[in-house]
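tool_call: predict_structure(chain=1)
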Amino acid sequence: MVAVVVSVGVVAALVVVVVVTAVAVAVAVEGKVLFMMVVMMTEVVVVLVVWWLLWLTEVVVVVAQKLLFLMLVVVVVVGKVAVVVVVAAAVVVEVVVVEVVVVVVVVVVVVVVVVAVSGARTKCRKTDRRKYSEKVRDESGVEVGEEVEREGEEMREKRREGEQIERSDKK
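tool_result:
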């Protein structure tokens, strides 16, 4: 009688572990690692309880019960490996997806900034060209664009001469 109860207990524990492992894998994929750890601890407790039941009824334990317990242990170990692999794959996929999203966002931002800056520079160049192409007129309406340009060149020459004088003074 006790052997039957223990056998039924071992089979029930085996079924519970299989179902719980399947649930743990499904939940782990969703990213709920805390729940997965609780499930793993539950499985460990189930194995320990089954081991205790087998130890209590060691006198009447048959080979089938030992085989069932070994199956239970194997399922738990395989379940753990499966959960770890699935979680690791989910984490890797999640990391890769995050990295791809980050790269795409960075590329889009860079393209937008480059387009905006180049558009602004082109606009500035067009504005500057318009300014330079217009002739400067004095109060009487006479074009003085060339005189202004010459004055600018004269100022540059005076600045260069001043720099040369400063260099010669330092020597």
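agent: Helices lie at 2-29, 33-56, 63-133, 145-170. Proceeding to next step.
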